[in-house]
Specification:
Elements (H helix, E strand, L loop, with lengths): L1 E7 L4 H12 L4 E8 L6 H7 L3 E4 L8 H13 L5 E4 L8 H6 L4 E5 L11 H7 L4 E8 L9 E8 L6 H24 L3 E4 L2 E4 L6 E2 L3
Parallel strand pairs: 1-2, 1-4, 2-3, 4-5, 7-10
Antiparallel strand pairs: 5-6, 6-7, 8-9
The structure holds glycinamide ribonucleotide (GAR).
The site of glycinamide ribonucleotide (GAR) has 14 residues, from helix 1, strand 5 and helix 6.
């Protein structure tokens, strides 16, 4: 059984979709811990109710980013994970941390990367007049919101969309692509060659609008 550690900062709906798919689809894996950098993160309760170890490493308790990253790495390593999954984890991680988990560190970002790295992705897509938006699951590299792309989901931007409407449409697709990407990882179905990720069974790495 592969061991998955999930890092969250908030409500944890992506974490929940992964925990549920792991159980229902009987992955050769287990979510062994959910770690939050925020004490009030809503997702912690869900994890605890599902007998998953939870821990808070509050970034405010550390004088520097490096000290926080080191404490976080220590908490993760206790769990001897095969895969570390960032699911709405809203802290920037330093290069040393990222390198430590390179190749086994996944993130989901609510845009069609490389467009709109960073924050406020939905409003920026609306303001730019984009007709398509979406989400990207990628391996994490030291450069923020970059790294080899595992799967993307595309949704239309509809006339009259505000940030809330677009983010809900994207989030519903995040809940489909993130479990899929994690399942591929724990089943050894991904290969990365020269920065390009391939699913070895040839499964589509693009989820188009329903
Ligand atoms: C998701 O939309 C995720 O893509 C985004 O935060 C939300 C977390 O929701 N992540 C980022 O913006 C990372 N840069 P959740 O806590 O319900 O999974």
């Amino acid at each position: 059984m592969k061991r998955i550690v999930i890092l969250i900062s908030g409500r944890g709906s992506n974490m929940r979709s992964i925990v549920e798919a792991c159980a229902v689809e009987r992955w050769p894996a287990r979510v062994v811990a959910v770690i939050s950098n925020r004490p009030g993160a809503g997702g912690l309760a869900f994890a605890a109710e599902h007998d998953i170890a939870t821990q808070v490493i509050d970034h405010k308790a550390f004088p520097t980013r490096e000290a926080f990253d080191a404490a976080l790495a220590q908490a993760i390593d206790v769990q001897t994970p095969d895969l570390v999954v960032l699911a709405g984890f809203m802290r920037i991680l330093g290069a040393a941390f990222v390198r430590r988990y390179e190749g086994r560190l996944l993130n989901i970002h609510p845009s069609l990367l490389p467009a709109f790295p960073g924050l406020h992705t939905h409003q920026r897509a609306i303001d730019a007049g984009c007709k398509l938006a979406g989400a990207t699951v990628h391996f994490v590299t030291p450069e923020l919101d970059h790294g080899p792309i595992v799967i993307q989901a595309v949704v239309p931007v509809l006339p009259g969309d505000d940030e809330d409407a677009l983010s809900s449409r994207v989030l519903a697709r995040e809940h489909l692509i993130y479990p899929l990407a994690v399942r591929w990882c724990v089943s050894d179905r991904l290969r990365v060659e020269q920065g390009i990720v391939r699913q070895v069974d040839g499964a589509s790495q693009l989820l188009l609008p329903a």
